[in-house]
Automatic annotation (TrEMBL):
Residues of the Solute-binding protein family 3/N-terminal domain: 42-277
Keyword rRNA processing: no
Name of this chain's protein: Cystine ABC transporter, periplasmic cystine-binding protein
PROSITE patterns for this protein: PROKAR_LIPOPROTEIN (PS51257)
Signal peptide start-end: 1-21
SMART domains on file: PBPb
Top-rank lineage group of the source organism: Bacteria
Pfam family, one: SBP_bac_3
UniProt entry keywords in alphabetical sequence: Signal
Species of origin: Pseudolactococcus reticulitermitis
Length: 286
């Protein structure tokens, strides 16, 4: 009798153990299925890695203010995985157009035609438009550069500024030599230094950084007074596709940017890459 009871008790214990294991497997499978359903979306950002200190390549990896801001933003968005892809500048914009890239991070300025085709983030930094010229050249405005030559990229914001200036000043035009998007900014500055061209219109922060890095001691950087009263002048942004995904990204990224501005992350990155606080106010134009 005692043996029979022991057999029954052993059977009950074994049955309970099997049930617990089955429950564990069921719970594990449920968790696994939930993870599969909770998919992480890869978001590809395009950059030319040729606009130091906003974006550049170091040890074969893209870095710089814009890139590190993007990484800081997407650390706060676990539903996405950020992938950074380096390409030439013209392909940055074209790739966003085609949907190959979901957004661009490349010291991109605002202009009306772009706003019709793309969504812009909240502004990331504020600098000045400036020209790099030989140290003996006197310049305050674009009119002082009438008849002088430069090299420009077809889709760059600075090209648009110069083209509009030429349209408004047909008797005081500057000479625009169009070049391929793969031609580095440092090479264009070297062309100013050698006398091949007379000036380069670009972002003041980038010009100063590259001139210092390349030891182009005979060049100086002069801020150029804006030809317009556009409140977007000097501001730079992320650029998103103008579709449902782009709008969703814009909304989420802007929310995180506001948080990173409030907690000092943007200021810290600005001081690291720019050498000062160039973070615009929270109510800067978008």
């Amino acid at each position: 009798m005692k043996t029979y009871k022991k057999m029954i008790l052993s059977g009950l214990i074994l049955g309970a153990a099997v049930a617990l294991v089955a429950c564990g497997k069921s719970s594990s499978n449920a968790t696994s299925d939930a993870s599969k359903n909770d998919k992480v979306t890869t978001i590809t950002v395009a950059t030319d890695a040729d606009t130091k200190p906003f974006t550049y390549s170091e040890n074969d990896q893209a870095t710089g203010y814009d890139i590190e801001v993007a990484r800081a933003v997407f650390k706060e968005l676990p539903e996405y995985k950020l992938k950074v892809e380096i390409t030439d500048f013209d392909s940055v914009i074209a790739g966003v157009d085609s949907g190959r890239y979901q957004f661009a991070a490349n010291d991109i300025g605002w202009r009306e035609e772009r706003a019709e085709k793309y969504y812009f983030s909240a502004p990331l930094s504020k600098s000045n438009n400036a020209v790099a010229v030989k140290s003996d050249v006197k310049v305050k405005t674009l009119a002082d550069l009438a008849g002088k030559s430069t090299e420009v990229l077809p889709s760059a914001n600075f090209t648009n500024i110069l083209s509009k200036y030429n349209e408004a000043n047909p008797k005081q035009q500057v000479k625009l030599n169009y070049i391929d998007g793969s031609y580095p900014t440092a090479s264009r500055l070297a062309d100013v230094d050698s006398g091949k061209i007379d000036f380069l219109l670009y972002d003041a922060i980038s010009l100063k950084t590259i001139i210092k890095d390349k030891g182009l001691a005979d060049l100086k950087v002069v801020n150029i007074a804006s030809e317009t009263t556009d409140p977007h002048d000097g501001l730079e942004y992320f650029l998103f596709t103008k579709d449902a995904q782009g709008k969703e990204l814009q909304t989420k990224v802007d929310k995180v940017l506001k948080k990173l501005q409030a907690n000092g992350t943007l200021k810290e990155l600005s001081e690291k890459y720019f050498g000062g606080d160039f973070v615009p106010s929270a109510d800067a134009d978008k």
